[in-house]
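ARCHIVE CARD
CATEGORY: sequence design from structure
SOURCE FIELD: tokenized fold
FIELD CONTENT:
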């Protein structure tokens, strides 16, 4: 039996090369070895206001981009979070197993609360518990994520261990999978911040669907550090970030790249990086253009995915409900 892998992306903004390098590329590389579940987490997305018709079309678009990036629909279970009612139901139970002190420590909540100060809703606060439910419902072994999600995964493990301490063996304890290089791709204009797909300034990121001329322009505009050396250096976050992107997309190691660009200038390096990005994005964009017009095909994948996921999720949910003392649904016996 294959081990179980689960991961997800919230349908907000535009998928970026940060999401690709930190998440999607690993999903693609790991899919053959694991029993994989890949989600578009629309329930997470609405913790920040979303225009309803854009959210609907973005969910379709993200699924088409997953497929265009090489995620195989036959081999894996691909679905939309809100199609599986068990996520919300388990999240409620796990909310009652989570301390507010733990939620107060979540850095993503603190950052998002600052950014959306006029809409600090309860959903945003308990979002990590919904994420824990996503993972624990499927008895997941491994969760490929970017560095920013590490804290949420630790919380997931803590909640699961706490529940298991009273109710032995209910949840499998998941492990994160975070790549050594590229787990945190930084913003192009502010390399001290993470590249963020819902950034209000699109010049901070390269979107998977950016046209070649846009990619070239954004890389040319990207901030560079003082000095001229093309070298990984903690005190030079801008060039280190661009080198990391180059390395992750080309498969060359950072030291090979330092050697390749020794005595070359930033302008030449940036031109080559932009060309590499354009080359890597071209097949993804080609496949996407065909897929996005085939709504019936995508709907069929989602219908099948929801069917499989519901069956699996309901099994765990029923065990949990029984453990906490909920009466079985249907015929009620005294
Ligand atoms: P948002 O600001 O809308 O929440 P986001 O870019 O942080 O968007 P998520 O949906 O939170 O995207 O992340 C999806 C996956 O992509 C997660 O596994 C996350 O860790 C990874 N990821 C996101 N941004 C980056 C990045 N800059 N570098 C590496 N991985 C990333
Ligand atoms: N919170 C994650 C998205 C997410 C997720 C998950 C990732 C929701 N549920 C389950 C892995 C497994 C984020 O990247 N913002």
């Amino acid at each position: 039996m294959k081990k179980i892998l689960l991961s997800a992306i919230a349908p907000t903004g535009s998928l970026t090369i940060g999401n690709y390098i930190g998440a999607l590329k690993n999903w693609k590389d790991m899919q053959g070895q694991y029993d994989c579940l890949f989600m578009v987490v629309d329930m997470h997305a609405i913790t920040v206001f979303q225009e309803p018709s854009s959210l609907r079309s973005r969910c379709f678009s993200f699924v088409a981009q997953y497929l265009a990036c090489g995620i195989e629909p036959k081999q894996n279970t691909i679905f939309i979070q809100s199609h599986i009612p068990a996520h919300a139901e388990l999240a409620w139970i796990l909310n009652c197993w989570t301390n507010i002190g733990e939620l107060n420590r979540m850095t993503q909540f603190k950052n998002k609360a600052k950014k959306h100060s006029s809409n600090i809703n309860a959903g945003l606060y308990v979002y990590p518990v919904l994420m824990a439910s996503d993972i624990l419902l499927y008895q997941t072994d491994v969760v490929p994520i970017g560095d920013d999600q590490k804290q949420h995964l630790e919380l997931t493990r803590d909640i699961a261990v706490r529940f298991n301490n009273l109710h032995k063996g209910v949840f499998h304890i998941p492990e994160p999978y975070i790549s050594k290089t590229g787990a945190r791709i930084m913003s192009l204009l502010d390399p001290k911040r993470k590249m963020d797909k819902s950034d209000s300034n699109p010049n901070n990121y390269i979107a998977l669907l950016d046209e070649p001329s846009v990619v070239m322009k954004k890389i040319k505009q990207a901030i560079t550090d003082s000095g001229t050396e093309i070298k990984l250096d903690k005190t030079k976050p801008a060039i280190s970030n661009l080198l990391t992107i180059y390395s992750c997309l080309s498969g060359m190691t950072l030291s090979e790249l330092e050697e390749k660009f020794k005595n070359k200038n930033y302008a030449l390096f940036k031109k080559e990086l932009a060309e590499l990005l354009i080359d890597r994005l071209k097949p993804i964009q080609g496949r996407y253009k065909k897929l996005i017009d085939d709504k019936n095909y995508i709907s069929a994948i989602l219908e099948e995915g929801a069917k499989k996921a519901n069956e699996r999720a309901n099994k765990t949910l029923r065990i949990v409900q029984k453990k906490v003392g909920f009466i079985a649904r249907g015929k009620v016996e005294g």
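CARD ANNOTATION: The first strand starts at residue 4 and ends at 9. Strands lie at 4-9, 35-40, 77-80, 142-144, 175-177.
SHELF: design records, drawer C
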